Amino acid sequence: MKKTLIALAAVAASGAVFAQSSVTLYGVADVSIAKMDGQTTKLSSSGTMNNGTSRWGVRGSEDLGGGLKAGFTFEQGLSLENGNISKSGTGEFGRAAWMNLSGGFGDLRLGRSLNPAFYAAATWELTGTANYSVQTKQFGTALNGFRSNGMMYTTPSMGGFKVMLGHQLKGNDPAGTDVARSDLTGIYANGPMAFSVNYNKPSGGEKSFHVGGRYTMGMFTLAGAIVDPAGDGKGFALGGAVKAGPVDLVLDIARDTFYKDTDLLLEVKYPMSKRTTAYVAFVRDGKGKTADNANNVGLGVRHNF
Fold first, then answer.
1. Fewer Cβ atoms within 10 Å of its own Cβ: the N or the C terminal residue of the chain?
2. Is residue 214, in this structure, part of any structural domain at all?
3. 177-212 as b/e, with b when 16 or more CB fall inside 10 Å?
4. CATH number reported for the structural domain that contains residue 195 in this entry
5. Cβ atoms 44, 31 nearer than 8 A
6. From CA 270, how far away is CA 231, in angstroms rounded?
7. Some GO term, biological process aspect, for this entry: which one (predicted)?
């Protein structure tokens, strides 16, 4: 009887430990029929005219007690065209490979991850940072920042406001040139309004800066941003979204005022369920003074799991 009670106590204690830990499999399956200017129509799952990149990953967390948690995320891109790994970086888990500690102090994330510049742009970008986002295409690294070998700290939310600070040490410079990079974002999101500002810069290099916001009034949302990437290019983004019944419509414009280049997006999304969305996207890719404009179209379905 005593041995039985000890065994039951051990099982109960083990169950309590397991109850405090969790591991989740998640991902995105996205496939579209894409027609890019100058190219033959093709099936695509991680391309420019997909809503998102097809991928899978695992994430987990453990409750360490006292409000402190440890967690991790490993994420890998994949192609639905042929089943191959679709690498965002040099490794198999090139989309994400990080661990974090979180608690009342905020969140500290270490490894390969999305960064403060990305989260700042996601605050006001209306497509949900789709692959065909004209803001990302037009202004590039100003909205993406660095991704590998990073440290990122996020403060707790204070009335809807939080600060994100990212840094990459010189020894982790992927180019091997001993360049450190810093990335600072402030985000305010409360009720119908969201606003963000970002500054990111490599040591000894040129800074990138963007500030933007959005405001929702019933079924309408308006968004705008000013973007100043490193280099000559700079400009602005303007967009509007409307919810017509179950259908979401987005019109976005990204204008580089230095190169006289305007990109335009028209997106239509229809939710087939909470996890599955059908979409149509048309992108007019401006070439400025260098070439004729290009028209690209994608018709696809995205499923989140």
1. N
2. yes
3. eebbbbbbbbbbbeeeebbbbbbbbbeeeeebbbbb
4. 2.40.160.10
5. yes
6. 38
7. monoatomic ion transport
Buried/exposed 46-55: b ≥16 CB within 10 Å, e otherwise: bbbbbbbbbb
12 token code pair: 């109960």
Name 103's bridge partners: 106
Indicate the number of domains in the chain: 1
Asked whether residue 127 is domain-assigned, the answer is: yes
Kindly report the length of the chain.
305
Q: Is 31 among the domain residues? A: yes
Q: Name the nearest CA neighbour of 298 among 25, 30, 26, 11.
A: 30
For 208, the token pair is 């990138």
Q: How confident is the model at residue 145 (pLDDT cuts 50, 70, 90)?
A: confident
User: Helix, strand, coil proportions of the chain in percent (round to 5)?
Assistant: 15, 55, 35
181-190/193-202 β-pairing: antiparallel
User: CA gyration radius for the chain?
Assistant: 22
- Tokens read off for 167: 């840094």
- Report yes or no on 77 lying in a domain: yes
CB 296 within 8 A of CB 48: yes
Q: How many CA atoms lie within 13 A of 103 on its CB side?
A: 11
CA distance linking residue 285 with residue 294, whole number of Å? 5
pLDDT digits (tens, 9 = 90+) for 99-130: 999 999 999 999 999 999 999 999 999 999 99
Residue 221 CA to its chain's centroid (Å): 20
CA 133 distance to own-chain centroid: 11
Residue 289 pLDDT class (50, 70, 90 cuts): low
- Do 139 and 211 form a contact (C-beta atoms < 8 A)? no
228 or 147, greater pLDDT: 228
Boundaries of domain holding 82: 23-304
